[in-house]
Amino acid sequence: MHPMVKPALRRGWRDLNTVQFGMTPAHALTLGPMDTATGSFLDLLDGTRGLPLLREEGRRMDLPDGHVDLLVRRLTRAGLVDDARGGGADADALRARPGALDRLRPDLAALSLVTPGPGEAMGLLAARRALRVQVRGAGRVGAVIASLLAGAGVGEVDVRDGGRVEPDDVAPGGLPAEAIGERRDEAARRAARRSAPDRPPRRTPGPSADPEPAGFSLVVLAPRDDVAVHAPDPAAAQPLLASGIPHLYAGVVEATGVVGPLVLPGETGCAGCLQQERVDRDPTWPRLVAQWRSGRRRPVRACDLALATTVAGLAAAHALAFLDGSGQSSAGARWEVSAPAFQWHARPVWAHPACPCGAADHPPEGPAEEGEGEHPAEDGGAHATMGEQRHSQELGRTAHTARPAGTWRAHV
Ligand SMILES: [Zn+2]
């Protein structure tokens, strides 16, 4: 291991013997007591030295025997250490492609803040290259999601849609103006490829006519049709449910952006559950949906570029968090944001007992929380502080109330 204090976190001294790593409540930690010599030693933890060399440097700086190992161990347990050479064979392969890695360094740094273990972020970034994701819908939202996922390192992003690119499909980061008149799916796949010039070679021989979603880690449903966003058709997701493929809804309807639910088939609420619940609340719901779907007049859709891009960004973030295994906060929930206030809020999508997806038979769990259950508490304070650190909103409060004197602690 070549330990490196996570370079994504800015460092500052709160007083003579307390160091703060990071600036924001979500990811910052303070550690102490730490003497000045140890503090200076932190500069050497930059990933260029292995432990034997670090111990040698420690002796040279008159640090006590075993101090370097203790320091690295404590920093590691606090989730502050990355391994400049860790992450496994796939990570080594990615490091061997400096062009690809240079482009993704900010993404890697972001991953390092949501993964506690040394080398874990690099391992996840490298693992993205083997993933296959399909995006259905290549309008202002879907084409941008596809580009974001490809740009973030997802190895294969397939896009499905019909028709040809219309002028109002054009969006920054999505379909370019030059693509007007071209096949929508092809133009969107090309846009996605352009976002990842260093992508790995395709493992499958190009898009087939078979829309069967087998082999995809995730399917993103981002319809251009606003009724399909507001009232997703359970029948359209049936093959995904049958094959057990996780899928995520996203789109814009009448200046309201929607992200979710992320459906884990048989485990969390699906489009059918959502529909059943709406019928329970409003018996006229099916009549309205039938009228919306059959409307002869196709109104101009209220889907401004800024909102469409916001939705695409959040959907891609939720998709990546799920693919990386670091969060499922849109499972069992629909995140909605409306102009002009633009405040996201989540509406629950409960598993419905009348829905054939079977999610209601699953042991009831609320919408999953990021990080929940991933890091079982171990003895020692540092792990506990890491737990507090990951639940950002409670960080300040819990840390202040449970701070054993003289131990390493976390608060901002
Ligand atoms: Zn269901």
UniProtKB/TrEMBL annotation:
Region (Disordered): 158-215, 357-412
Domain of life of the source: Bacteria
SUPFAM superfamilies: Activating enzymes of the ubiquitin-like proteins (SSF69572)
Domain THIF-type NAD/FAD binding fold: 129-357
UniProt feature, compositional bias: Basic and acidic residues: 158-167, 180-201
A GO term for molecular function: ubiquitin-like modifier activating enzyme activity
UniProt xrefs under Gene3D superfamilies: NAD(P)-binding Rossmann-like Domain (3.40.50.720)
InterPro entries associated with the record: Bacteriocin_synth_cyclodeHase, ThiF_NAD_FAD-bd, Ubiquitin-activating_enz
Name of a matching Pfam family: ThiF
Signal peptide span: none
UniProt-recorded name of the protein: Thiamine biosynthesis protein ThiF
Organism in which the protein naturally occurs: Streptomyces longwoodensis
Species classification: Bacteria, Bacillati, Actinomycetota, Actinomycetes, Kitasatosporales
